[in-house]
Amino acid sequence: MVKLGELNSVQAARLFADYCVTQGWSVQAEAEGPDSAALYVDEAQLTEVSQALELFLQEPGHNRYYEAAWQRSQLAEGMGSLWTGLDARAFSGPVTLLVLALALLVYGWQLLAPMQALSALWIEPQSTGVSLSGLWRWFSPALLHFSLTHLVFNLLWWWLLAGQLERCLGSVQLLSLALSSALVANVAQYLLVGPHFGGLSGVVYALFGYFWWAGWLNPAQGLRLEKGLIIFMLVWLVLGFLDVLWVSMANWAHLGGLLAGCGWAWLLRHQPGRPA
């Protein structure tokens, strides 16, 4: 990383760094004294971050910077609670590990033969008939990921949420939720946008929706999320539809998965969870 510059306020430097992180830029603020801090940035992002810093210096009180800082603090709070007392054995059910393995294998296939992998797993109208291979295409886009960041982000959430749900409700319930939400998410994205998409995030949003509503409808199951994470995931969904983010997202898949997960929480609202 290279030094971008210095600000005569540690708080302002951290505020700007928080904003940059939410924009996908690698920026760090390091205090150099009680009233000064240095900003460091990835050299490849120096030009665009320099332009953002000029804008920040012109209007440091703009709401966009405080919203970014709040968003990061809420996410950190929620993630801290989610990771408290983490035991890897509690997140290693067979369905959880199977989907992890399949997604990793597909990503390796994409690296070695990208066009072959996409051709085999994308939804194609001429291939979605009554044959097994055609039906599989309505589910298989969930295993496609287009960057390492995309893959790691989705698999981390899958491992945390799916592992807890599998431990609490069993492998059959997790498999049923995963398959049905993948189908709903993929069909929604395909019909409303088109066939060229991928990612496990529709299923992740289904798990999020389940935890969100189960925490309200059936708290005895013990599946719940902190308020900060709920707000973050909902805001992220809305921002995706507003098309103001730096990444392209399968927004209808996210919404379809969320609704499917909420529906499962309602269907299982009277089912007790297994003891931890």
UniProtKB/TrEMBL annotation:
Domain Peptidase S54 GlpG peptidase N-terminal span(s) in chain numbering: 1-75
Top-level EC class: hydrolase
Entry keyword annotation includes Protease: yes
Key words, A-Z: Cell inner membrane, Cell membrane, Hydrolase, Membrane, Protease, Transmembrane, Transmembrane helix
InterPro entries the record matches: GlpG_N_sf, Peptidase_S54_GlpG_N, Peptidase_S54_rhomboid_dom, Rhomboid-like_sf, Rhomboid_protease_GlpG, Rhomboid_protease_S54
Localization per Swiss-Prot or TrEMBL: Membrane
Transmembrane parts of this sequence: 97-123, 143-162, 174-192, 198-217, 229-246
Membrane topology designation: Multi-pass membrane protein
Chief location: membrane
GO biological process: proteolysis
Residues annotated as domain Peptidase S54 rhomboid: 135-269
EC number: 3.4.21.105
Family: Belongs to the peptidase S54 family.
NCBIfam families recorded: rhombo_GlpG
Name of protein: Rhomboid family intramembrane serine protease GlpG
Organism: Alkalimonas delamerensis
Designated gene of the protein: glpG
